[in-house]
Amino acid sequence: MKYVLVTGGVVSGLGKGVTASSIGVLLKACGLRVTSIKIDPYLNTDAGTMSPFEHGEVFVLDDGGEVDLDLGNYERFLDIKLTRDNNITTGKIYQAVIDKERRGDYLGKTVQVVPHITNEIQEWIERVAMNPVDGTDKPADVCVIELGGTIGDIESMPFIEALGQFSYRVGAGNFCLVHVSLVPVLNVVGEQKTKPTQHSVRGLRGLGLMPDILACRSTKPLEENVKLKLSQFCQVPVSNIVNLHDVTNIWHIPLLLRDQRAHEAILRVLGLWCVGKVSQEPKLSEWTERGSKFDKLKSPVRIAMVGKYTGISDSYLSILKALLHASVALDRKLVVDWVPSCDLEDSAAKETPDAYEKAWDLLKGANGVLVPGGFGDRGVQGKILAAKYAREKNVPYLGICLGMQIAVIEYARSVMNLCGANSTEFDPATKTPCVIFMPEGSTTHMGATMRLGSRRTFFQVNNCKSAKLYANANYVDERHRHRYEVNPDMVSEFEKAGLSFVGRDESGRRMEIIELPAHRFFVGTQFHPEFNSRPGKPSPLFLGLIAASSGQLEHLLQRSSGTVSSPSRCINRHRSCQVQ
Fold it and tell me: What pTM did the predictor assign?
């Protein structure tokens, strides 16, 4: 097994995750099997209880793992399926060591950071790196490890010590360290400054790690004299210094690395440059075509994103990527209008009239409306008003998780005249509970107590839009993250009133997909289809939203429903059961 470690210096937010993903793409394009591990030095066991304002979205894996959003980048870029163990946190490591101590595994020894914590980190990496992730039973050839945070952070010290030991443990030729750093330009001077990177590398070396490759972030391409200076002071060959300057879209990053022969530098460090099975020229024609196509798109499609966390785009990162995948596939330039749901509410008209007017202008100017998931009652009334607007004005609508639940509540209130209809999440004493707490949920613990991971949804109506988008499938496996569900005791009332529950779980009592048959495109899902979207394989429901919003839905439905080639007609997002 070969290992590539990606670290970051100077400041956070440099794009280590995208860099690590792009390195993985490059190595995969050379014919290698690639897996990924993300190390987060925080004490939380996982990302499940963290606010999107703090840490961006919580990405959900097939096995129900609630993990850092960078694992979403790994899955999208590399088209692989990771597990919760691919996200290492300080909390997980310490919990594992404490559990071993309680069992008596350390035979009475004093348990310390070195060697017990550092050994646990190394053993975890070696164990997880061997897990197959590409749908076959074969382990990866290379494991790309991203160390979160910035060199010098006190919380990451045990990991840095462990990785220093690990590089010695696996031996020369099996470990490559890529250090991502910043080369800023000060406006008053106007030249690229190398000192921040010099100090970052000096700090890294002082901690026992030597960078093999420098990946320098900058706004514009590095000047040649800057590379020479970095090489001299950081003791890294000029050929091993790559520049990651700003580009029009992140699909260009693997191409940027390729053009600078980054794969050659990495393969040489790993002793793979002359190995027969490794192609010396990465095959990236799809990435080249996709990146070029994105840059040439002209016809816009406007999607109103009505949510609570609209001030931080990372809160909805997977949704943004799924919208992008679908819009590029349908030759449309995506324009996302961020609509804070609170600003749509009647109270905002009095308190913040300018924000109220702007929010409604954005909503009314959009070609389609998307209401994503969320927790808590803040802004819920605004989301309900957005769903009502889309339903009444025949505007394409996609509601995800909470977005489906509020569509059900709005339908009960506006169409069925059940004025008190609500979710028990927002009003525990409601007389008309359209959405209820799931029986198996925990009322005392928050972490990992939701309905999580990949679950199967069976289509109840063969000719519904959702089934057609999924190529006339009988069922589909998608990822979930929720505590509340549509009240099964009210389903018959809703269906009599015209709301169709076209997808249900295997029991038939848990509602998964809703549709309004007479509407142009009004779909709600309890699951999160965005987590399975890939650049080359966009989520069918996101394709449906973009197609409906750009006048292409009828053509897309005919095309999708005519692609079935397997008698089993199942759509499973795993390769082993996917209908192409």
Answer: 0.92
